[in-house]
Specification:
Elements (H helix, E strand, L loop, with lengths): L1 H37 L4 H14 L4 E3 L7 E4 L11 H9 L8 E7 L11 E6 L4 E5 L2 E6 L2 H7 L7 E4 L9 H43 L35 H5 L1
Antiparallel strand pairs: 1-2, 2-3, 3-4, 4-5, 5-6, 6-7
Helix pairs in contact: 1-2
């Protein structure tokens, strides 16, 4: 009986020790993230350190207060449904927030019922410390910091939503009118250029044709052998007109 009690005690202790180890690792992971967050100075350096921590603790899971019963599975872009799509990260940086922000993927919430691809809510940490979750063409601001995320969980739907393309400023009516005028002028300019180009090509072709035509003519070079046998130079009547100084071709035939 005592032996059984001892075994149970040992088993309980091991089990308890196992939980302690798990909790200890969880605490260690959170501490690393928060230490990095509190000591951030340079955005690039900060996100670089976060990326290293993510890589180090890849696939570890951190339970969240919200959404209830969900865990943050730590991982980078390659550990999500967007693996291999480096351009997607650039789109998140460029096309959602009012200003371009550097970001890194810190993990995902798997089997999360929403419109996200593969029912996977990807979490991103921004250079300003905000945490975003990506749902189809929407970035949700789910936490103001990593500390907020670990303490209070991820607020979904987000505290704020940023839709794809909304960050680009809309032109005022005056700016739009100027833009249209510019486009119209550019179109006219292009058409004028094309017209001049066609005209130039046509003129060059005409000049080429004339040049070729002239090269086949041999003025004042009529060979005697080409003149009919009845043609004689004496049939050319004197005249001030140069054309009349040429032989009267076939005149002797007419006079016969």
């Amino acid at each position: 009986m005592a032996h059984r009690q001892q075994s149970w005690a040992e088993t309980g202790s091991l089990s308890h020790r196992g939980i302690t180890t798990s909790m200890g690792l969880l605490k260690k992971i959170k501490t690393e993230f928060l230490h990095c967050e509190r000591g951030k100075k340079d955005a690039v350096e900060f996100l670089g350190q976060i990326k290293e921590i993510v890589s180090k603790h890849r696939n570890s899971k951190i339970p969240l207060a919200k959404p209830k019963s969900y865990e943050l599975r730590i991982g980078g872009l390659e550990d999500t449904v967007h693996a291999g799509d480096g351009e997607q990260l650039e789109v998140w940086k460029d096309c959602y927030l009012p200003e371009r922000m550097e970001m890194v993927v810190i993990g995902a919430l798997d089997d999360f019922r929403c419109s996200a691809a593969g029912w996977q809510l990807v979490l991103l940490l921004c250079e300003d410390g905000n945490v975003f979750a990506y749902e189809f063409e929407v970035l949700h601001l789910v936490a103001r910091s990593l500390e907020d995320l670990f303490k209070s969980g991820a607020e979904f739907p987000g505290l704020e939503k940023f839709r794809f393309g909304e960050c680009f400023e809309e032109l005022t009516e005056e700016e739009m009118e100027k833009e249209m005028q510019f486009d119209e002028l550019k179109k006219i300019d292009d058409e004028h250029f094309q017209f001049r180009r066609r005209l130039e090509i046509e003129m060059l072709e005409d000049l080429k044709a004339i040049s070729q035509s002239e090269s086949t003519i041999q003025p004042n070079n009529v060979m005697k052998s080409q003149v009919g046998p009845d043609l004689h130079w004496q049939h050319c009547k004197p005249s001030g007109n140069l054309t009349c100084q040429m032989p009267l071709v076939g005149l002797d035939l007419v006079l016969r």
